[in-house]
Design goal:
Elements: E1 2-3, H1 6-26, E2 33-39, H2 43-58, E3 62-68, H3 74-86, E4 92-95, H4 105-111, H5 123-131, H6 139-150, E5 159-163, H7 170-178, E6 187-191, H8 198-203, E7 207-210, E8 228-231, E9 235-238, E10 246-249, H9 254-257, E11 263-264, H10 271-287
Parallel strand pairs: 1-11, 2-3, 2-4, 5-6, 5-7, 7-8, 8-11
Antiparallel strand pairs: 9-10
Helix pairs in contact: 1-10, 2-10, 6-7, 6-10
Bound molecules: NADP nicotinamide-adenine-dinucleotide phosphate.
NADP nicotinamide-adenine-dinucleotide phosphate (NAP) binds at residues 140, 163-166, 168-170, 191-195, 198, 211-214, 232-235, 271-272, 275.
């Protein structure tokens, strides 16, 4: 078994990006600028947004948090989004999910201008990604494809099983891995809460991706000998010995599974840092107008 070290790959990719940003700035351009809209006081969301802003700083991008109170009305949030769409100094922005329950997340995402949608959640960007056109690929699935490529993990003809069908992880990843691409050509099965024979499907996987948000859901007896295991889960579990009284674990029982598989992503230090890197790459693409200036005529 070997760890897929997402943390050091992320730092390596961020260093490369920092050099490109530096060259642009040295040539007299302003740095790329990312805005994160944060509604309410969800502690996990605050941490995620803070980490994203720190990563921007590391690569020389500027960033800003637009923090709004929990009671913000949907229309008021939409007004902010229209302003960000129109603001030429903003290359891209994200609306951190989840939003408070009185706000319709789908409606909000539809209001983000596709060319500034650096999370890649707008239907137009998902559609473009699905068709293999230039797009902003959602950060977590993108990060997973980059890890597979970097570690030369073959996907062609492999049986890939994805636990979870969310719009931000499982579903876009299933599209990418089944595409005719260097990280693709896999045969993909997507499992969800209504799936039957989940354990049997998992045992058949050459590449098993867990993205369901259930601590230690994947046990050793659900993993085929020599499989590649990608753990997307981020779960807090109580731990009286930890300084904060809890620790973060994935959806996979790492200690039990690690000796059975060929490659595995640890939690933390696996998929998470690559997700942040994906956002930075999308912001760079937005800054360079790579996606929408390369739109083929008629699309
Ligand atoms: N590392 C990172 O950078 C990163 C990024 C994003 C998310 N995450 C973490 O990844 C996890 C998943 O996130 P998400 O946003 O994709 O979650 P989500 O929106 O809650 O989706 C969970 C998915 O798991 C499925 N599911 C639930 N129980 C299941 C079961 N027993 N068997 C099979 N499928 C089951 C659900 O099925 P239904 O569709 O039928 O409900 C759903 O499709 C969370 O822990 C999250 O914190 C990590």
């Amino acid at each position: 078994m070997a760890d897929i070290d997402g943390k050091s790959l992320a730092l390596q990719m961020q260093e490369q990006l920092a050099q490109e940003v530096q060259s642009a700035v040295a040539a007299g351009k302003r740095p790329p600028h990312l805005v994160a809209v944060l509604v309410g006081e969800n502690p996990a969301s605050r941490t995620y947004v803070r980490n994203k802003m720190l990563a921007c700083k590391r690569v020389g991008m500027t960033s800003q948090i637009l923090a709004l109170p929990n009671e913000t009305a949907e229309e008021e949030l939409l007004e902010h989004i229209r302003a960000l769409n129109a603001d030429a100094s903003v290359d891209g922005f994200i609306v951190q999910l989840p939003l408070p329950s009185h706000i319709d997340s789908d409606k909000v995402l539809l209001h983000i201008a596709p060319e500034k949608d650096v999370d890649g959640f707008h239907p137009l960007n998902i559609g473009r990604m699905t068709l293999g056109l230039p797009s902003y690929v959602p950060a977590t699935p993108w990060g997973i494809t980059q890890m597979l490529l970097h570690y030369n993990i073959p996907t062609e003809g492999k049986q890939c099983v994805i636990l979870g069908r969310s719009n931000i992880v499982g579903r876009p990843l299933s599209i990418l891995l089944s595409q005719n691409a260097p990280y693709g050509n896999a045969t993909v099965t997507v499992l969800h809460s209504r799936s039957r024979n989940v354990e049997r499907h998992c045992r058949e996987a050459d590449i098993l991706v867990a993205a369901i948000g259930k601590p230690h859901f994947v046990r050793a007896d659900m993993v085929k000998e020599g499989a590649v295991v990608i753990d997307v889960g981020i779960n807090k579990i109580p731990d009286p010995d930890a300084p904060k009284g809890y620790r973060i674990v994935g959806d996979v029982d790492y200690a039990a599974v690690k000796d059975k598989c060929s490659w595995i992503t640890p939690v933390p230090g696996g998929v998470g840092p690559m997700t942040v890197t994906g956002l930075l790459y999308n912001t760079w693409k937005a800054y360079r107008r790579e996606v929408y200036h390369s739109t083929p005529v008629g699309v």
